[in-house]
Amino acid sequence: MVELGQWEKALSVAPGVSMKYWKKLMQRRADQLMAEDNDDAIPYCIATGEIKKLVTFFTAHYPWLYFGLFLFSLLHKVCKELAEWYFQDGCCVLAACCHLAVDNIELAMASLIRGNELELAACVGTVLGETAPQSTAYCLELLARKYMTTPTWYLSADLLQMIPDNYILLAKLCAFYPGSDTEINQLHERCRLPSLEECKALAEAAMSEGDLFSAVKFHLLSSEPENALRIGIDHVKEQLAGPDWTVDIVQPILELMSYIRTDCLIMAKLTEVRSELLILCGYIGGLLAIRRQYCSIVPALYEYTSQLLKRREVCVPLKIEQLSVELDAWRACTQPNSNPPSECQREEFSCLKKRIQPADSVLQGADYVTGSNMPSHSDVELSCFTGHKIQGPVFLLEDGKSAISLNDALMWAKVNPFSPLGTGLRINPF
After folding, report:
1. Which of the chain's ends, N or C, has fewer CB atoms near its CB within 10 Å?
2. Helix, strand, coil % (nearest 5) of the chain?
3. What is the largest CA-CA distance in the chain?
4. 396: helix, coil or strand?
5. Whole-prediction pTM value?
């Protein structure tokens, strides 16, 4: 076949003889194409690792500029693939180093954030300045969430104050702070926010002006934060009942309401509104998980929402049957399956994508913390999401018994702040 010039056929069957013979044949083909000054020689040289031949070919036939661009492109591709290999192996720091080697700051930051190396990511982002402002701000926000607990509330505030556009973030922190009125006012003052009484008046003023987001915000910051839930949830339900809503329309106000103080949220008189908040956060969290490609927790979020709908007396524009249809459509259209999706499933998923809309591609993809591929220790824990043994670090939920992988816990917390147990407590795996 080679003598007849049928190189492709010869190369396709050559591995049947041996890989050594295939490589030798590839080298012969590369030499022939180079002799003909044919650019098709390039992939053959790359496949066989003939870098010296490739350099010789480029220096002889192309200006140095084009050769430099080729090598630059090749270097970026190799570093990206090596970084992904390290990341999937639970070595996010090495993955970040690969990206930094080619000055890809955004992907380096994303690797550290998705690997939950938040302190390191914050340092890298701070040192590198304005090269990755969005990633640095997001990292500082997650770090602040980590420290929203006694005795590190002020540290959380300091971290948020490092973010340029931090007013709403500081408002969320103060809304969640569980201290006495005096302590709350002190934190408000530190964060340059109005006092409890002033916030109550500002909430009423914002409501009269039709500024619903500000009304919810100031109600949360007042001495009667439960008023924020009633106003905000009614607004979200109204949006979901319409035909043209998107995740980005309802998610900001839901996230804001999720920062209501826990002691207030779990009061008996707020049972119904609390249930509605958990259901809405669970559903929108599922859509956010689809957007971010958190595939391992999408079914869990949909199941969580469905179970709450079954068990709680609520009035929300969501149906269990519709959730099932959406989940089946997502699975059929995105997950490996022997059966192709039906036309109805394609239409359903297309509608779902319109509601979700595109996301920041840099931070898409599952989280993998250090040690994710390490075997479990002798105290085996089963995931309450899948029932399977957890590999790598484990995160215990608030009942001290239920467990999920730390990777799943991190992804869950990034799209739904409330615990998978439906208690109304926030989850903090950071």
Report:
1. N
2. 65, 5, 30
3. 91
4. strand
5. 0.82
The number of distinct structural domains making up the chain is 1
If pLDDT is split at 50, 70 and 90, which confidence band does 377 have? Answer: low
In a domain, 417, yes or no: no
For the record, the structure tokens of 19 come out as 């890989």
Helices (H), strands (E): how many in the chain? 22, 2
By CB atoms closer than 10 A (0-12, 13-18, 19+), residue 237 is middle
Q: CA-based Rg of the chain, rounded to a whole angstrom?
A: 27
Distance CA 401, CA 286 (A): 24
Per-residue pLDDT tens over the stretch 124-180: 998 887 778 889 999 999 999 999 998 999 999 999 999 999 999 999 999 999 989
163: in domain: no
Residue type, 190: R
Extended strands (E) in 90-200? none
Residue type, 203: A
Distances (CA, A) of 218 to 174, 207, 222, 252, 269: 11, 10, 6, 15, 21
The number of angstroms, rounded, from the C-alpha of 80 to the middle of its chain's C-alpha atoms is: 19
Element (H, E) at 75: helix 64-88
Examine residue 322 and state whether it is found in any structural domain, yes or no. Answer: no
Tell whether 270 is covered by a domain: no
Domain that holds residue 43: 7-104
**With bands split at pLDDT 50, 70 and 90, how would you rate the model's confidence at 204?**
very high
143 vs 70: CA distance, rounded Å: 40
Dihedrals phi, psi of 92, to nearest 5 degrees: -70, -30
Cross-strand pairs, 395? 404
Terminal-to-terminal C-alpha distance of the chain: 61
User: Coil, strand or helix: which one is 383?
Assistant: strand
Helix ranges (H only) for 209-270 are 212-220, 226-241, 247-257, 262-265
Q: Which residue has the tokens 């926030």?
A: 426
